[in-house]
Write a structure and sequence with these properties.
The protein has 203 residues and is mainly alpha-helical. It has a single domain, classed as Ferritin, core subunit, four-helix bundle (Ferritin, Up-down Bundle). It is built from 7 helices and no strands. Helix 3 packs antiparallel against helix 6. The longest helix has 38 residues. The N and C termini lie far apart (41 Å). This is Exported protein. InterPro entries: DUF4142, Ferritin-like. Keywords: Signal.
Length: 203
């Protein structure tokens, strides 16, 4: 279930558990649990040769593309944005989605190699030539908010109706983190919209 947008201000959010050492430890723990769950579903030392169902293959591809897009867009944000809040959010996404991609890749390889995911070229292409506030607005809207909304729906669907036990476990473990990313993105969007409104009123 998607978490409701955080009501606190961004400075408070930045000081909250999501950005403290406690959060830094808890999220990797969630990824670790995801990997452990995936590992536990297979016999030790054995590689599963059975192919994934069409539904599960589609999930791996869609989740891979979503993650690759988050990572690629996040790297752009580090150089194209002049806003510290946006860059901090982007750095967090690069770190978390890299861990998630690694875990999904481990599962996919057990069933035979699935084509490596690539970022959504239309999204990345629309961001490449933007700078500053224009980049921030597009990045927050297309990647941070819309991207994570779709990711939440994707992981929720797999956790409920996936066919492969390891993928279902991975999706279930990743869903709370993805939902948290979505809530963070919504708060970031709200904060930046308020900031733009204040700037307009003071002109």
């Amino acid at each position: 279930m998607t978490r409701s947008p955080l009501k606190s201000s961004w400075p408070h959010l930045m000081a909250s558990a999501a950005f403290t050492l406690v959060s830094a430890v808890s999220l990797p723990s969630a990824w670790s649990q995801t990997e452990d769950a995936a590992s536990a579903s297979a016999n030790p030392g054995a590689i599963q040769s059975q192919k994934l169902s069409t539904t599960d293959q589609q999930f791996v591809q869609d989740a891979g593309t979503a993650g690759a897009t988050e990572i690629a867009a996040g790297k752009l944000a580090l150089t194209h944005s002049s806003d510290k809040q946006v860059r901090d959010f982007a750095q967090r996404m690069i770190s978390d989605h890299t861990k998630l991609a690694r875990n999904l890749d481990v599962i996919a390889k057990r069933h035979g190699r699935i084509s490596p995911p690539s970022a959504d070229s239309s999204v990345i292409g629309s961001l490449q030539n933007l700078q500053g506030a224009d980049f921030d607005k597009a990045y927050i809207g297309k990647v941070a908010v819309d991207g994570h909304q779709k990711a939440v729906e994707l992981f929720k669907k797999e956790s409920e109706s996936g066919n492969d036990a390891a993928l279902k476990a991975a999706a279930s473990k990743a869903l709370p983190v993805t939902s948290h990313h979505y809530a963070m993105a919504q708060q970031l969007a709200k904060t930046k919209a308020s900031s733009r409104a204040r700037c307009t009123l003071t002109r």
